[in-house]
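Page 42, continued from yesterday. The earlier attempt failed because a stray header line got pasted into the input along with the sequence. Redoing it now with the clean sequence only.
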Amino acid sequence: MITKTHTPGFSPSLSTVLLTVSALFALGPGAAPAFEYNDEGKTLANKRLKGSYGFAAQGYFGADFDATTQLTTGAIAIRVGVFNFDGNGHCSIHSMANKAGLKAAVTQDTSDCTYEVYLDGTGKVDAMLGGKSFQTFFVLVNGGKEFMFTRREGTSTSADQGGATLVFAIAKKQ
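This time it went through. Structure tokens are written below.
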């Protein structure tokens, strides 16, 4: 015959609670917060993106959507380059593009470039490149060592479609 023994003063549920508290205490103080905040309580998430990132992108130049046929037309474009982020919301881009129909690659540098990183790791870049405004929307991956992005040039116009370069790319920390 097997009998259960019970230690006076310790119920099984109390033992579980004590074991859990002991394990948490052994792990030490909580992990550092994922984001730093300034004196005004605003996130300093831009610090998550700092340094040089090389990228290769492909997309369509002069993309135009025909609502009647539901087709997008345009020449294929390929671009390689480097994003430089300062950790404080300012950036620069140097890139070279090869677009179908051109005899030579086009090299361009930004004349104005700012960026924001949001708490969820997504963000955007607003820049001027080759006289055109564009926005790049990205998501940080691989612990901030890479980001995937999509870009639409010509964002200074009010039109939602047409005349743009539509791009998808991956950038990796150099």
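Notes: The first strand starts at residue 50 and ends at 66.
Reminder to self: strip header lines before submitting.
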